[in-house]
Design a protein that fits this description.
about 180 residues; 2 helices; six-stranded mixed barrel
Length: about 180
Amino acid sequence: MSIMQFLQENTSNKPLIQANLYGPDIQESIKGYLLADEVRKNEIDQHMSISIEHNGNTRNVIIKEIQKHPVNYKKLHIDLYEPKPSTKIRTKIPLKFINHEKSPGLKLGGTLNISRRTVDVHVVLNAKADNIPHYIEVDTSNTSKGHVFKESCLKLPSHITLVHPEKNTAFAVLNK
């Protein structure tokens, strides 16, 4: 992913998206703009970590929130958060279900009923704040009808932990 420009003035003829930059080391939030083409090209989504260029400095930030138009879903506003290095943050990471074609339960006519598409986690950030995965894979191979996917079955990197491991919540079921 390339470093995105964080502009403080609308001096470009290109389409822009309003953005605010804030964090524990920023006294007052900084209002600015991101180039809409860069946001689209980099497939920017909520909870991702990206690098931006601001006043000649590269800053590693997390996309905290994206406001979208209610009808056409165009991105209207993006909140960027610059955390301190080695900070533990709470975020949601999307789940990506893979290997459907290898699942015996699906081959026999079962249906994957997904009740949640994200998981609530704590992430200990590295110095660049770039170790938040874009998604967590859920392997559906070797699953039969009646299989319940729970948070405990997720393979998480060592710097990521579940917010509520004691609940071991189900997020999908392979129906009969």
